[in-house]
Amino acid sequence: MVYRRTEKTERRLAEVRERVVSAALAVAAEHGFEATSMSAVAERADLSAGGIYRHFPSKGALLTEVFKRASGHELDVLASVAAVEGGPGQRLARVIEIFARRALDGRRLAYALIAEPVDPAVDAARLEYRRRYRDLFAGLVREGVAAGEFPAQDAELTGAALVGAVAECLVGPLAPDRARGDDGPLIAAVTTLALNLTGVSAHVG
After folding, report:
1. Which GO terms fall under molecular function for this chain's record (predicted)?
2. Which of 53, 58, 164, 179 has the lowest tally of Cβ within 10 angstroms?
3. What percent of the chain clears pLDDT 70, i.e. is strictly above it?
4. CB atoms < 10 A from the CB of 28, how many?
5. How far is CA 179 from CA 26, 112, 173, 174, in A?
6. Residue 172 pLDDT greater than 80, yes or no
7. Can you tell me whether residue 176 is helix, strand or coil?
8. Smallest Cα–Cα separation from 191: which of 162, 149, 155, 171?
9. CA distance readout (Å), 157 to 17, 138, 162, 173, 205
10. Residue 31 has pLDDT above 80, yes or no
11. Can you tell me the mean pLDDT for 92-110?
């Protein structure tokens, strides 16, 4: 007879898995991906290391799920910002501003998501989410061109350039060894740079 898990067992397993992911996300947010060991996650989740391996076969698999969870949440936030009323340039400026501000407010996790050397499986997820960010930015650029706010351009190419430029501008300030200063001027400069990449020479308020 084939053993089938009961609904109660499935629910309990799902709850434990969620506990593991939440614990790993908390550790990564404090210490980065490299320091997110299975033992540290087990301690945070109040489980044995063996209990974690029942849900994730490797640290890479666990951190891939953590990356997807964190990046997916950030992308959802930005998508909601992009959907509010306003012109395309205004909304793009707001998206970039929120992206930079949220990264700088949660800098240890943001650095891990953007720049920290990671397992190949996590790196593959990072590339996928960079494409999703590109598509979000490209959509706003496309709207801007259609509305006459931005000059004619390849929206997908500009979207990719925006992802790369914004991320690169933040890598240094997000680095774990960098002392925190006043983030306001940096956020304003990154936002203006992003708009300049679309062909708009002044900040869109």
Report:
1. DNA-binding transcription factor activity; transcription cis-regulatory region binding
2. 179
3. 95
4. 25
5. 22, 17, 8, 9
6. yes
7. coil
8. 162
9. 38, 8, 9, 26, 24
10. yes
11. 96
Tokens of 183: 């983030």
Given a cut of 80, whether residue 201 has pLDDT beyond it is no
**E-assigned strands of the chain?**
none
b/e code 144-174 from CB counts within 10 Å (16+ = b): bbeeebbeebebbebbbbbbebbbebbeebb
C-beta separation of 138 from 156 below 8 A: yes
pLDDT at site 203: 45
Cα(110)–Cα(74) distance, integer angstroms? 10
Question: Angle at which helices 155-174 and 120-147 pack, to 10 degrees?
Answer: 130
Does pLDDT of 204 surpass 60?
A: no
3-state secondary structure of 12: helix
Q: At what angle do helices 59-82 and 120-147 cross, to 10 degrees?
A: 10
Spell out the domain ranges in the chain: 7-197
Q: In CATH, which of 1.20.120.160, 1.20.58.100, 1.10.287.70, 1.10.357.10 is domain 7-197? A: 1.10.357.10
> According to the model, what pLDDT value does residue 32 have?
94
Nearest Cα to 29, choosing from 98, 97, 113? 113
As a whole number of angstroms, the distance between CA 79 and CA 135 comes to: 10
CB of 33 closer than 8 Å to CB of 122: yes
